[in-house]
Amino acid sequence: MVHLCHIGLAMDQPVTTPAPSRAVRRITSSAIRELLALVDRPGVISLAGGLPSARHFPVEETLVAVDELLRGGRGALQYSSTEGIPALREWIAARHGVRPERVIVTHGSQQALDIVARAVLDHDDPVALADPGYVGAIQAMRLGGGSLVALPADEDGLAVEALAERLGAGWRPRLVYVVPNFHNPTGATLSAARARRLAHLADLYGFLVVEDDPYAEIRFSGHAPPPLATLTDRVVSIGTISKVLFPGLRVGWMVAPDSLAPSLALVKQAVDLHTSTLAQGIALHLLTRPGFLTDHVTVLRAHYHHQARVLCGALTTEFGADLEVTPPDGGLFLWARLRRPGIDTEALLPRAIDSGVAYVPGSAFSVSAPHRASLRLSYATVSPEDLAEGARRLASVVLGRHERPTAGTAPGGTDRYH
Predict the structure, then answer these.
(1) Which residue in 414, 393, 400 sits closest to 315, CA to CA?
(2) pLDDT (tens place) for every residue of the chain, 418 residues total
(3) Nearest to 132, CA basis, from 373, 354, 353
(4) Following DSSP, what letter does each residue of 323-343 receive, concatenated?
(5) Which stretch of DSSP H or E encloses residue 63?
(6) How far apart are CA 255 and CA 261, in angstroms?
(7) CA 304 to CA 300: how far, in whole Å?
(8) SS3 for 211-269, per residue?
(9) CA 243 – CA 249 distance, rounded (Å)
(10) Domains recognised in the chain with CATH numbers
């Protein structure tokens, strides 16, 4: 028998919310996500966000894809396999030159990072990555229990020789994370020599390489390094359609070694059973539509190339020698470093927003170094006119001109403010 007095005693006890787990306490919120909420208002030219150009989303083609999928039956609305629908896995496998069994379709590349971390890392396993680093990877690896170790980087990408020195001294990472093409935030491309050296080190010392390559198709100049997965079997290659088609579908993938693919699929099964069948079907329809992808990517490359030239030119005009900028060969971003002593781009940001321009301070990408004098700028969605005006406003704040924003610049419209 249950005694009412016992119930009363229990109800008298204070009710508390469970404390966050150790995994949650290892990560922090993305400063970029928080910044987007702050600057998404009329009058602010945002060079902060990493959103692809919405005006180039294939809306009409997507409507056709959805119509054909739904008229063809109800399979696109049903559950599907954990690893992904076979036809999409086959398309991805053909692009990578592997068997479909090595492909797992994910909810975007961010989920792929999360799954790899869960499947590979134990608590405090060492993870090496470039500093500054991609925020999503930093979060995923820390959530998975990884202990992050920063490696320097330059215009040729991750400083692989710095990794080699650590390895030679006895240090052993569980995995090394690298963005080979147009690293976020620096825009750097890993040189071919460094790619080969990294693959050799992976074979020699037995660590896993996570090759995150979301921007590979948006190359408008320069030369790509050889895919790391063609140089060693110790690679998980991660891709996504978000930058080429549109991010709302949340379709990405992993290409894994045979020995690791079953473990990744098991984690995927536990996390969400499978990626949206409808989203996969839409992606497959667009990716395999005759002639569409080639023409679409050609337009994207021309657009982003023009945008990058406009912003680089405007920054050079406004800042001169006070700002160091390397023109990107692709992707959506450029990394800039202010040469004035004592500059802190994080502390300067509120004044910049008040002056009608936003960026992401370098500290948001910190693994260990503060990057106080650096900032990331995106040229993806802002009009050429607003890129030039944004550079002018930024210079007025940094160089102490304190000019008021030009009236009428950056009128309403979400495509212009991310």
Answers:
(1) 393
(2) 444 444 444 455 566 677 777 666 666 655 555 665 655 677 899 999 889 999 999 999 999 999 999 999 999 999 999 999 999 999 999 999 999 999 999 999 999 999 999 999 999 999 999 999 999 999 999 999 999 999 999 999 999 999 999 999 999 999 999 999 999 999 999 999 999 999 999 999 999 999 999 999 999 999 999 999 999 999 999 999 999 999 999 999 999 999 999 999 999 999 999 999 999 999 999 999 999 999 999 999 999 999 999 999 999 999 999 999 989 999 999 999 999 889 999 999 999 999 999 999 999 999 999 999 999 999 999 999 999 999 999 999 999 864 545 544 443 333 332 3
(3) 373
(4) EEE---SBSSEEEEEE-STT-
(5) helix 59-71
(6) 8
(7) 6
(8) EECCCCCCECCCCCCCCHHHCCCCEEEEEECCCCCCHHHCCEEEECCCCCHHHHHHHHH
(9) 11
(10) 24-50+294-416 (3.90.1150.10), 59-288 (3.40.640.10)
Query: Which of 319, 407, 397 lies closest to 358, judged by CA?
Result: 397
- In this structure, the chain runs to a length of 418
**Cβ neighbours for 184, distance < 8 A, ≥ 6 positions apart:** 50, 134, 215, 331, 332, 333, 376
